[in-house]
């Protein structure tokens, strides 16, 4: 039995509320169980220097966790003057994942920054950030289309992410913190709306895993991201 009482293939309750901030071109609050992430997308009318005069745009991401997002207070990284390695790794993952679903030539020479701020954490914050970040990005691009600033839709496909792992010897979908902290194997799966893989992160946290178990986790991830994509569609 999972700590939450869920079956091995059950997702946590998912909700995505859009338009939650006044100024961002795209915004949403995504809730995956007790993990809540505020995602905003901001459009700048210039690309990063390495893309100037190339006709291509860029999508990047920043990630942060509020001090009391967890059960004990975490010091703000700004107070220490540097980001942790974990933060840098996660925001690079979010940026890579979102760029996989966009045509950067169709976007034109501009940059969209997706900010993902974890309000409350209960496992799977990077996956929720990717899933919610895509919604914020979609809404921002909709504004470009409505204003006639891009001639064709640069969004190629949905992008969503979910965690899976081996908990108590069983492959399970959508780990919460209680499971994530005890999982023998932990994985994050990022997929497109057409089921194409963008990235897979898997590691043996406490026990090695077999090829068969990896396939079982991928099957769970495909089912889980399909549900997330339905939630994205309902939100926009």
Number of strands: 9
Principal-axis shape equals globular
Q: Biggest β-sheet, characterized?
A: 5 strands, mixed
Structural class: alpha+beta
Low-pLDDT ranges: none
Compute the average pLDDT.
96
The amount of helix comes to: 25-40%
**Strand order, biggest sheet?**
1-2-3-5-4
Straight-line distance between termini: 35 Å
For the CA atoms, what is the radius of gyration?
Answer: 18 Å
User: Beta fraction of the residues?
Assistant: 25-35%
- Count of runs of 4 or more consecutive helical residues: 6
Order of helices and strands: EEEEHHHEHEEHEEH
How would you explain this protein's 3D organization?
With 236 residues, the chain is an alpha+beta fold. The chain has a 5-stranded mixed sheet. α2 packs across α4. The protein is globular and about 55 Å long. It starts with 13 loop residues before the first strand and ends with a helix.
Q: What are the key terms here?
A:
RNA-binding; 9 strands; 4-stranded antiparallel sheet; transferase; 5-stranded mixed sheet; rRNA processing; 236 residues; globular; RNase_PH_CS; alpha+beta; 6 helices; 29% strand; 31% helix; EC 2.7.7.56
